[in-house]
Amino acid sequence: MDTEIHNLLANIWFFIIGLMLFLYVVLDGFDLGVGILSLFTREDQHRTIMMKSLESIWDANETWLVLLGGALFGAFPLVFAITLQSLYIPVMVMLFALIFRGVAFEFRHHAHNNAPWNLVFGYSSLVAGLAQGLAFGGLISGLGINEGDYQGNVWGWFTPFSALVALGVVSGYSLLGATYLMIKTEGAMQRISITQAYIAAALEIVILMAVVIWAAQLNPYFAVRWADAESGHYLDFFLVLSAFAFIMLMRALRMRFELRAFFWSVIISLAALSAMTIGYYPYMIPPSIALTHAASSSRTLIFMLSTIGFLIPVMMIYSGYQYLVFRGKVQMNGHTD
User: Fold this and answer.
1) Which of 179, 171, 143, 156 has its CA nearest to residue 256?
2) Is 84 exposed, middle or buried (0-12, 13-18, 19+ CB in 10 A)?
3) Are 36 and 126 in contact (CB under 8 A)?
4) Which is more confident, 268 or 328?
5) Closest by Cα among 231, 233, 262 to 245
6) Is the model's pTM score more than 0.85?
7) β-pairing verdict for 145-146 and 289-290
């Protein structure tokens, strides 16, 4: 009975951490995407509007990353330790990029020349997205774990597969950022955002399919899960869902349905994350560290449910209220309607 309860709690926390990851990918993903897209904007006035659209929300979005790290440390300390050990370089690069991004965001308000800080903001967003993709790609491709110990080298995470995943993450963030800007802008800038959304969506769907096919060849366990009668149906469902969401996104972009375009870009991200999660379940670090073996004690998991578990709905309500308050278009003067 104790084992069953522990396994249940471990699975609950696996779902909670997956939810945190999804919320971070969507919420911080679109503002990282806006930063990436700012590198392709020549008009300083347009770049100012892009940054103004994030001014009141970007720091709250990154809170999900902090909560995710804390939950992973408490619920799955073995995974946390191995991840930091094996992915030290991309994790540190990501953190420094996020720090520089925040510095650039604040300093541009007091600088006589905004151009250098605009570039720092854009390149920091790009580097953060690439680092996250490289870390995630290295994680799902296997890290050389043997009997719970990391046996790889410091560059073991850097592979052609992880590089492809990094490009997929950047294109996904760019798509979220472009569809978000559709909601927040109008006129010429909205037309530019629609064009960027078309390009990012095409790149993301192609890379997603390539990642899935490559993952099946790279990791035999993923191929077994695909061939399994039950898990294979779920994998097929999410791939079909991603294709359907792509079609609906194209329609929304063509018809300029602002909220629908953002919604379908979120669904594509959800389908991609869900497919990869199901493909490697119940492993958190495939194919060596299972979630039930890496989980903390049942008492720890229960205690965390009463603390961090309580924060999640509070943060979701706060985020929803925040977006409600700061809804509307960003005008050329930087204010919202």
Assistant:
1) 179
2) middle
3) yes
4) 268
5) 262
6) yes
7) unpaired
